[in-house]
Amino acid sequence: MSANYTFEDLKSDVADGSIDTVLACLVDMQGRLMGKRFQAQFFVESAYEETHSCNYLLATDMEMETVSGFKATSWEKGYGDYTMKPDLSTLRRVPWLQGTALVLCDVLDHHTHEEVPHSPRAILKKQVGRLEAMGMKAFIATELEFFLFDQTYEQAQASGYRSLKLASTYNEDYHIFQTTKEEDVMRAIRNGLQGAGIPVENSKGEASAGQEEINVRYADALTMADRHVVIKNACKEIAWSKGKAITFLAKWNYNAAGSSSHIHQSLWSADGKTPLFFDKDDEYGMSETMKHYVAGLLAHADEITYFLAPYINSYKRYMAGTFAPTKAVWSKDNRTAGYRLCGEETKGIRIECRVGGSDLNPYLAMAALLAAGIDGMEKKMELEPAFEGDAYGGKDIREIPHTLRDATSLMSGSTMLRAAFGDDVIDHYTRAAQWEQEEYDRRITDWEVARGFERA
Predict the structure, then answer these.
(1) Is the Cβ–Cβ distance between 31 and 363 less than 8 Å?
(2) Mean pLDDT lowest among 130-134, 257-261, 322-326
(3) pTM of the model as a whole
(4) How far apart (Å, rounded) are the C-alpha atoms in residues 342 and 361?
(5) E strand intervals along 169-312
(6) Which candidate, 198, 122, 196, places its Cα nearest to that of 422?
(7) Residue 350 C-beta-side C-alpha neighbours within 13 Å
(8) First to last CA, the chain
């Protein structure tokens, strides 16, 4: 978990004046950082033990609306406090902000000091604990794609998000010259993350104009999720500081590729030394453990989609021929499939889930994937044959749910997820999904007006 920056390091930096602010953050349902900016001296003297926040932070939508219908929090219950308990192993400097450090917090019940079950970090920790009881450890890497714009966030909003100017004018997938033009932002992101204790592998251009990807080294599941939320916040803050804007919308424009967050998964022994997915004698190098795990992913692919695609917009990404999958099948090194086998015949063998968009909450997505995989291992599910060819054109094969409405129903009705997460947790996120759908259903879109203004 270590970001290579300790509490003793922080106290030293506070003493010499190089750090004067500490961000104490919880992660909300949307995967955003919410919290307080502490005077650093007060944090090292007192607040490092705990602080508090309103419990509505885990029951709001994108607009921070106080949504009705949640069991855990409501006007009737008075919107009391949660306790935020800093996890000092997540402490890190924030090089792109002057004199600043950051720590992530676990969210505890204010009265019992037990973890709040529907807190994203607690949900993932529960699944990690299940693996630990089985003598296993998950290593995960998340790729993150986004679009970079030359306008600021304020300018984009003022324009009604029309006539936005992308950082490039043509497909820049792996394109060195084009990405050179964007290095002022991308170098700052790479170096800033590295300075924050997040080991960066690379950045690259992606498959549309203005589209970027940042990749960091894999880690255990909780560490990777922690890195993921810091990365997204860093990208936005760094772009903003340079007069630019970044979006992690899964599908920002009909004519552009979607933005994904592919999730690479493998299981290892508890000490992290023995790869449990590898069998050198197998055709692909897949162990029986891996086959059962992947079978679980596929068996529950429909049920877990909500946690990979949590918004109305998320489902606009699933279009044939765009490198976003439409079929929940597995295949060897095949980017048309929802689940791609990578690193076959090596100790680095892993399964890549290509279903998730860049808008996902990493804790929830990883927890759902692990829960599905664990179910496959516990029940020793048999893995179906690998799909071969173009999965977009595949007939009579498992499809990714087409809408949020479908995914919500499948998630809510999942016996596996209710057993893994708890009824209250699934009911909580079902309500969040229902509210997203309700908000969309009553809105009038530009498409509807342009289509029917004259012709209706």
Answers:
(1) yes
(2) 322-326
(3) 0.97
(4) 23
(5) 200-205, 211-216, 219-220, 245-247, 263-269
(6) 122
(7) 17
(8) 58
